[in-house]
Amino acid sequence: MASTTTDDSTISSSSSSFEKRLTLVNSTQESVQTLSLWILYHRSQYEHLIKTWFKVLKKSKPLHRLTLFYVANDVIQNAKKHNALVYQQAFKPFLNSSMIYVKENAIKKKVQRILEIWRERGVYDEDFIDELLKKLVGTEVYEKDKEVTRVIAEFQPKSLCESLIRFKQLEGETLVKEQMINNDLKLIDGMSIENVRKLKDKTSTDAYYIEYENSREKFQEYVRYFERLLHERKTIKQHCKQAEIFYDAQYQDANIVVEAYKNFGDKVATLKKKLDSLIRDLPETVSPPSADNVPSP
After folding, report:
1. How much is the pTM?
2. pLDDT at position 86 over 50
3. N or C: which end of the chain has fewer CB within 10 A?
4. How far apart are CA 262 and CA 256, in angstroms?
5. Which CATH code fits 12-154?
6. How many other C-beta atoms are found inside a 10 Å radius of the C-beta of residue 44?
């Protein structure tokens, strides 16, 4: 009985200590990795540690939930290296349940990025990642994001250019066909039962028939060209939509790079100001004594 009481007391104390660690961890890489290594080292207590992680996650504020997700990410991705693969499977049900707690707009995109990295690196299987993403962003948004990802991966600017060239060429050819049938409009307009009845002999009837067939074939050819033109327009419209998605993503990526360089430049400028200030405060350099003033031995 005394042993059981001692074990319960130890677990309670350990839980309280770990909760404090989870509460105090911050989003810096050093803080996240330090706690992650501690969790990996105590892998024998994995069930208790994961349940405590989820408990603290639920009652934390959004930004701290993101930090705790960073901790889980570091544990999961480094589990194999530290002979603690048990964490990858043990975390799965809690990750599934945690999605409703990380849906806030301030952190959702960053959590989504972690899930995408897990997919890219094969940390978890496709079906599980899909399940998490649907819970995180909603099925409709997820399907749309999936399509955007596909377009960005598959879009070829060359295809858009080739479609435009084909369309321009086909448009010109269709216009020629249209001009050709315009010359036959009077014949078509003049066709009626009364005019046919006026044909008195075989020669005039055959001539009329040949002219009619020629006009009909021109119209049919024009219709075929026009249908191809409509199809090509739909293709271009689709390419343009994909181009908009692709170049918008490129623009956003470029903005991220520009912002990163801007922040780096600001840090360098701030550091330069500090160095200039320190240089100004340095004592003036004392000139070394000349050879004439050096005492003889």
Report:
1. 0.53
2. yes
3. C
4. 10
5. 1.25.40.90
6. 10
